[in-house]
Design goal:
Number of domains: 3
Number of strands: 0
CATH class of the largest domain: Mainly Alpha
Largest sheet: none
Helix content: over 70%
Order of helices and strands: HHHHHHHHHHHHHHHHHHH
CATH topology of the largest domain: Growth Hormone, Chain: A
Structural class: mainly alpha
Number of helices: 19
């Protein structure tokens, strides 16, 4: 490779290579959800085991997302991206060969280790290559469109593959994409490192893993093991102790994994809570509807994927509209639309039955998708609002981690509520057992709308300015953090 600035054609190849990473990671979510009933049938898996096939992935991604970004800064972004692609493709191959539900969960964790390296590192590569503001904005627009495309095609591709070749084939599709991306990375992507590297926070990293894993394990296994059993209570105590320890450790470090001072900003704290609420609602929505469509209504996987298409299309179509609102300073309006639409979409499912009209279902799915399509952009905007350039990338990274935490909790809580309801029922009815979850989603949607107002108030902006002054580091390089603020969208 030459050492000069990359040509326009080479920049496009680099962008396409980086987008391949987000395509695989994002599409993996909807593809696996559509295949869950087939996985359950082959392995005779319980609902909690199905929860783990999703949450083992999201917990690992949430735990290592920020570490992966700093590793790329330290060891080289191209090298880290290649390792991530290799791990993700190896994990995908092993998932397709899994002989049991337990091994599938383990191999999903391997996938997640690779997935955690892809998005943050790939965005750093894009920011480093596209140095001019306008071309960088266009590149980030393509990045965001890839995310929407992945959500849109995931249910259809997953349903078609599951129905024709079997559920194992949903993991095969990652292999050629990852192989092409590994070759293109070696051929076209320049190596880069950060000018200033944050020190490794090993103790903080361990505490994050323990807290998230213990909390998720307790919520998923609570219905089966008993909420007051010593093992489940012990898991919740361990999660709480790890959380307290994390606060104590991070408040004393010079380069903490999570800068706790950020949470003194009402806008940042609101963004973190918004991310957890929105993504927990979305992940529970996908998980429960994938099971309902196939196991209750008896639809084949491909038709179930088509039923989820209104949600994905709405997400892909509304995300750019949300970006325009946020760009015009109307973050509050975007969050009001997001919360209201998610609330109405979930409200339409609170009387869900086996014979609910398909037209009503599709309409509810589409309205819910509108809400989720509007929520993602303002989450990042709110997270970095008022932050100095040198800290905006870190703030956006914490917001991204909050998304993954929310995704884990959504599947864990939603599945546990349904599992507990089914165990207590004289005549188990899956559709009826989901009703409490939809009402909980209605509450989450209303909370998003309320937080949208609170997080954009004059008081919230004032707290953000005080925190920005507190955490600003005049010696730290900008590191294009203002762009990472848009990139996390």
């Amino acid at each position: 490779m030459n050492d000069g600035p990359p040509s326009v054609a080479r920049k496009r190849l680099i962008l396409a290579t980086c987008c391949a990473g987000v395509l695989m990671v994002s599409m993996d979510v909807t593809i696996v959800n559509v295949a869950l009933p087939s996985i359950r049938k082959e392995f005779g898996a319980t609902v909690s085991a199905l929860q783990w096939t999703i949450d083992a992935y999201t917990v690992v991604v949430a735990s290592f997302l920020m570490l992966a970004g700093s590793t790329g800064d330290r060891a080289g972004r191209r090298r880290t991206f290649q390792i991530g692609l290799s791990l993700f493709s190896l994990g995908s191959l092993l998932c397709s060969l899994a002989p049991s539900i337990e091994t599938l969960v383990v191999f999903r964790m391997m996938q997640a280790l690779g997935g955690a390296m892809l998005n943050p590192v790939a965005m750093s590569i894009v920011v480093n290559v596209f140095t001019e503001a306008k071309e960088r904005a266009r590149a980030i627009g393509v990045w965001g469109a890839t995310f929407g495309l992945a959500l849109a095609v995931g249910p259809i591709v997953g349903g078609a593959l599951t129905e024709t070749l079997g559920w194992r084939s949903i993991f095969w599709i990652n292999l050629p994409i990852a192989g092409a991306a590994i070759f293109a990375t070696a051929r076209f992507v320049p190596e880069s490192r950060a000018a200033r590297v944050r020190r490794f926070d090993g103790f903080g990293q361990v505490l994050v893993v323990v807290a998230l894993a213990a909390l998720t394990f307790g919520v998923i296994e609570g219905p089966r093991g008993g909420w007051l059993s010593p093992a489940i209570v012990g898991l919740f105590v361990l999660a709480a102790a790890a959380g307290v320890g994390l606060v104590a450790v991070e408040s004393r470090r010079h380069d903490p994994l999570i800068d706790l001072r950020f949470f003194r900003s009402a806008t940042f704290s609101s963004a973190t809570l918004l991310a957890v609420l929105a993504f927990s609602t979305f992940s529970a929505f996908l998980f429960l509807n994938s099971l309902y469509l196939q196991e209750v209504r008896g639809l084949p996987a491909f038709r179930a994927g088509l039923c989820l298409l209104p949600t994905a299309v709405a997400v892909a179509g509304c995300a750019p509209l949300s970006g325009r609102l946020v760009g015009r300073g109307q973050t509050r309006a975007a969050l009001a639309i997001a919360g209201s639409a998610m609330m109405l979409g979930a409200l339409g499912l609170t009387r869900l039955e086996a014979g609910t009209s398909l037209a009503w279902l599709l309409a509810s799915y589409g309205v819910f998708g509108v809400g989720f399509g509007f929520v993602n952009v303002p989450i990042t905007d709110t997270a970095v609002s008022g932050m100095p350039r040198a800290q905006a990338g870190v703030a956006a990274g914490i917001a991204s981690t909050s998304r993954q935490v929310g995704a884990s909790l959504g599947v864990a809580v939603g599945g546990s509520i349904v599992g507990s309801t089914l165990r207590a029922a004289v005549h188990p009815d899956f559709a009826a057992a989901t009703h409490p979850v939809w009402w909980l989603m209605v509450l989450c949607g209303a909370s998003i709308a309320i937080l949208g107002f609170a997080s954009t108030s004059a008081w919230a902006r004032a707290t953000a300015r005080r925190v920005a002054y507190l955490v600003d580091d005049p010696d730290a390089p900008p590191d294009d953090a203002a762009v990472v603020h848009h990139a996390a969208v």
